[in-house]
Amino acid sequence: MRITRPKDLLTGALFVAFGLGAMALSLGVHLGTAARMGPGYFPFALGSLLSLLGGVLVVRGLRPAPARGGWPAVNPKPLLIVLSSVLLFSKLLIPLGLLLSTALLVVVSSLASQEFRWRETLINAAALVAVVVAVFVYGLEFPIPLGPSFRLLSP
Amino acid sequence: MELLANLALGFETAVSPMNLLYCLTGALIGTLIGVLPGIGPVQTIAILLPTTFALPPVSALIMLAGIYYGAQYGGSTTSILVNVPGEASSVVTCLDGHQMARQGRGGTALTIAALGSFVAGCFATVVLALLAVPLAELAFRFGPAEYVSLMLFGLVGSVVLASGSLIKAVGMIVLGLLLGMIGTDVTSGAHRFTFGIPELADGLGFVSLAMGLFGICDIISSLETRETRDILKTRISGFWLSRKEIRDSAPAVLRGTLVGSLLGILPGGGAILSSFTAYMVEKKCSREPETFGKGNIRGVAGPESANNAAAQTSFVPLLTLGIPPNVVLAMMAGAMMIHGIQPGPRVITSNPSLFWGVIASMWVGNLMLVLLNLPLIGVWVRLLSIPYRLLYPAILVFCCIGLYSVNNNTFDIALTALCGLFGYVLHKLDCEPAPLILGFVLGPMMEENLRRGMLLSRGDPSIFFTRPLSLLFLALAAGLLIAMALPGIRKRRSRAFEE
Predict the structure, then answer these.
(1) Contact A140 B178 (CB under 8 A)
(2) Segments making up each domain of chain B, as ranges
(3) What does DSSP assign to residue B164?
(4) How far apart are CA B434 and CA B210, in angstroms?
(5) Contact, B163 vs B435, CB < 8 A?
(6) Which residues have CB under 8 Å from B344's CB, separation 6+?
(7) Which of B280, B270, B269, B273 is nearest to B302 (CA)?
(8) b/e for A111-124, b at 16 or more Cβ within 10 A?
(9) d(CA B229, CA B82)
(10) H or E element at residue B107
């Protein structure tokens, strides 16, 4: 049994996982009948449909037909850098305030580019911080703390 | 006539100074992102959704609508000058438009694109105004069964455009429907799929999902591939059209407008499908099909008119029936719901100034765009030279800050990162996110109507088949599914995507 279509297999596995998960979680909530559907009815039905589709895809992925498509090529660097820059922002927005977090977001996310250069990244960061302050704080009056909240220093 | 009174109300709303400003802002931003490859109306609407919270609903919708049809104007600029489609709906414009630019007729191409779009936009606005009231009245006769079937038809239609496997696309729809179930069930109050996280009690945030799937995921994939662009350095002169050119392109504009107006309304339609179809129509209708791809002005006029017409008529199903026919309109539906307006036939009667104001604003926006676009071409061209490495951090900044403002909650930002990862996985597996978002938006409505239908029929599922309209929609949906599964059409579909 060879994996001839890896993408189909992986998608199928994803679908089956989500589908079975949905079914399992729905059983914990009241299912009800067709006439009076409980909160779990529709999700359970959807989950079973999804699992079925996933099953078909898994079978398709293992069919002994000519192999079609390779394994998906993953470049972890941009993925990890962009995601961590966003997560970093979410964690540091309140402690560090808007100005610093924005600058940090720009700098960290710029690292993901193959053409990264320190000077222009810092200029970009400064420019964007200025734009952000102008648009969000003065223009749209968002209630976001600008500076650090000193929670790091208090006991 | 009542229509004139309604339009008067609409124009009154649309030309208020504030709304004019927002219309202009939306149109300009739309053109800007249309010009820039790598960012499109869906992402932009996702990013700008939080900024519309402070605005009254009419202004928000006017601005967001402006972004959509503005992007159709802008996309043609990049296609013609750089041979890179600014928008998916401008892909076909590259074929003849860029050739025209190489022959020194770039100015002509840009002009005909703008003028064709304007004519189409005006026509489509009229269509929208005419269809609105009758369709809404029809929708009042809809019972829950009809809604479920119509939504099903809409969801199946969204698969038409999804390249790749049909099963994966259907799976995406189901997954989207499931994600829409996260949160508190309205009828019973039970918490579903919340894993005890209080922030999820209101459901998975639409903005988080949209930004993660379309914004962040897009940035990550763009960073993986390197793009090079060569901008045509020739001077663009000669913006005026000769009489012959007007005569040549006029029928193409008309055909494109009709194609676009029709296809925009249908589920799964929209600007992309319309521009492709219009190009094929022009090629078939032409007496010299071999000249297509070498700078035939009809190859620019038709698709550009079509995509603009479609961008506007696609509002018809949303504003009258409450069902978004494509992804962009699903974002608008999300925006409406966030502003507390339930999309549906009641919008016309309960919120007439909103309804007619949006329609009138489209005409105003089109006028602004055609007047501003040609003089601003130089600006757009210069903007094209902003390197992506400086642009995407800006997009991320806007995303993150906007997200925070939704609930004053950093959880949403972290959630978006997770959705971004999810979107990346889907992208790598060749799964389209568009059906997922549509399913997500329609999920709760569908469940509610399904429940109500079954309750009314006391558990008898035949209600969906015995009521005539419901049966019609189901048959259409089934027909679409079967048609797409047939080998002949499957081949044509994959060939269209390859082109």
Answers:
(1) no
(2) 2-498
(3) S
(4) 10
(5) no
(6) B139, B321, B322
(7) B280
(8) ebbeeeeeeebeeb
(9) 7
(10) helix B106-140
Q: Which of B216, B223, B450 sits opposite A42 (nearest CB)?
A: B450
Check residue B491 and give its pLDDT.
Answer: 52
> What is the pTM for the complete model shown?
0.79
Contact assessment for residue B359 and residue B132, using Cβ atoms and an 8 Å cutoff: yes
Q: What residues in B contact A60, CB-CB < 8 Å?
A: 167
- Find all residues with CB under 8 Å of A153, minimum gap 6, and list them: none
Instruction: Identify the segments of chain B with pLDDT beneath 50.
Output: 498-499
Contacts for B114 with CB less than 8 Å, ≥ 6 apart: B73, B76, B369, B370, B373, B374
Q: For residue A103, give both structure tokens.
A: 């600058």
Q: Are B420 and B212 in contact (CB under 8 A)?
A: yes
Indicate the DSSP class of residue B351.
Answer: -
Residue ranges of alpha helices (H) inside B457-486 are: 463-466, 468-485
Residue B378 class from Cβ within 10 Å (0-12 exposed, 13-18 middle, 19+ buried)?
Answer: exposed
pLDDT in tens, B77-130: 878 877 777 677 777 888 788 888 878 788 888 888 888 888 998 898 888 888
The structure tokens listed for A83 are: 């995601």
Q: What is the pLDDT of residues A21-70, one digit of tens each?
A: 999 888 888 787 777 777 888 889 999 999 999 999 888 888 776 766 77
Tokens in use for A63?
């069919």
Query: How many Å is the maximal CA-CA distance in chain B?
Result: 71
Q: A115: Cβ–Cβ under 8 A, 6 or more apart, which residues?
A: B387, B389
Confidence band for A139, pLDDT divided at 50, 70 and 90 = low
| Count of alpha carbons within 13 angstroms of residue B311, beta-carbon side | 35
What is the DSSP secondary structure assignment for residue A32, as one 8-state letter?
B
Asked if A5 reaches chain B (Cβ–Cβ under 8 Å), the answer is no
**Model ipTM?**
0.87
The Cα of B422 is separated from the nearest Cα of chain A by a number of Å equal to: 11
Chain B: give the shortest CA distance to residue A136, in Å: 8
DSSP line for B413-462: HHHHHHHHHHHHHHHHTT--HHHHHHHHHHHHHHHHHHHHHHHHTTT-TT
Answer for the pair A51, A19: CB distance below 8 angstroms, yes or no. yes
Question: Which residue do the tokens 């005539």 mark?
Answer: B468
